[in-house]
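ok here's the first one, seq then struct tokens
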Amino acid sequence: MKPIPETLEALAELDALHDDGTLLVGLCRATASAQRLAPGLVGASVASREHGLTFTLVATDDEIAALDGVQYLSSGPCVDVADAGEGIATTSEDLFSEPRWRSFAQATAAAGVHSTLTFPIMGGAGRLTGTVNLYGSSEHTFDGKHARLAEVFRAWAPGAVTNADLAFSTRLVAEQAPALMREEALVETATGILAAHRRVSVEVAREQLEDSATRAGVQVGRLARVIIEIHHDD
């Protein structure tokens, strides 16, 4: 699997800061190990709760990268695991049977994802520092492999998280500015959809959309396209 452009840029900046060049190599090795354990793995992300940054790798369709943003915007295992402090494994049936996860269920189905595995990254004193989200191409991608997959990513993630001392939120919002200009029509349409469905003002809906895109580490236009697609038949 390959990192999406936003992840490559963030890791390059971090590697330059620490002058060791190991973060990207470590993440790619971890993901390769995970894919050997679970060949149906088509997407993986490691999210830093402290800095609002997500490192994402995808096997094929980079729209999988927007799935984290859908969770931040509505709800999903990635959000719930942060509150529960323990892992969550789902199948398509599980996602569609949970009303809070309806948007996420539609987005995963559209992206060809049929199972997910999410687990927390715990720091010192039992403090939650982030989450790992894995996306599978079949209902059984992660069956019997939860513990081994968790260990693969926990071995890499703490270093990436604890070494991250840049102002990520500010930088990521700035990076997204050109995309906002190029895809303003998509963003406005998605904002209108969210405002209508959530019965909030356009300003609040726009803020929620941009915040979710930033937390997921994807361009707001990419997340906007997913929102439009999953609400197309509503």
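and now the second one, same deal
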Amino acid sequence: MESKPQRLLSLDFFRGLTVAAMILVNNPGSWGHIYTPLEHAEWNGCTPTDLVFPFFLFIVGVSIAYAMSNKKLDSASHNKTILKAFKRALILFGLGLLLAIFPRNFSTFDFVESLKNIRIPGVLQRIGVVFFISSVIFLKSSEKTIFRIIIIILFTYWALMMFVPVPEVGYANLEKETNLGAWLDRTILTEAHLWKSAKTWDPEGILSTLPAVATGLFGVLVGVYLKRKDVEPATKIAWLFSVGVFTTLAGLLWDLEFPINKALWTSSYVLYTGGLATIVLALSYWIIDVNKYNRFTKPFVIYGVNAITVFFVSGLMPRLLNMIKIKQPDGSETGALSWFYQTFFVPYFSPINASLAYAIVFILFFFVILWLMYKKNIIIKV
């Protein structure tokens, strides 16, 4: 009889904290009024918001090590496990495409035209791809091989971005529209299928998904080590803190030559964010799983057990609500969610605090729904 995968409360806590942060930064009341830590870096650099996505991919990797460790030992089940992982990746990719195509206004929606212009890359799409590739590598490779793959990915990506001349430009560079990744996205996907805010490049593009896989594999190695039964918790914590500090510093040093950049998902960014994620998980493990201080974890665990579901619905719901039009005194119409923000937040706070207060209420609203699901043991696995 197959034993159930061992659960780590600190991992559930970390996942919930991360997805709640995702929703916070993705749903301000006004994109024109956001506190600086809740914005992405303009290009190079890393704000707290830039940590959220790599933390989630890191957690995906740790979860793979916990969920698939028994299956890794049974080579006969590898193909079945890989097929399940592929189906899950397809679902994630499909949900991302659904968010991209879902109309903001049914009255002007043209399905055929939307397919011609749908953005193909995206957050859920990248999660699906990283999950699948990391799963296959975990099942088929030893820890030493996984480590070597990470190193190969990071240095290969560095060499491609820093030394390969970009066609039509003539030289290697790291600028928004003229780097190798942007050229590849425009060539393969065309501008019609890229991020609508740029159209000439995509922050979840094809080439930058390669180092994103390294982020997932980083989490896999941390998960494998955490799951070891022959190592004392104190030793695990000491090693994880050491690895976290070392890789964070390595990322900062590499930043001097290959800048930390979320949109490009540079190799220095992988090391920097992976190191910080390792430190956060090690600290959480020490406090929650080792010392059993866990009363504060429940709200985040509630978010964590339905992480993908709440992320997807939080992206879908604003579009649905804004299809409901409310008439204004001047005769114009506005979406229901916009009306809610303008009516209950804007008059009572400064612009930037109104925007933040709205985002916090958004998180609390979903917490109530997730809490009811948790009480009824409703877990939607994607």
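notes on #2: The first strand starts at residue 325 and ends at 327. The first helix runs from residue 9 to 26.
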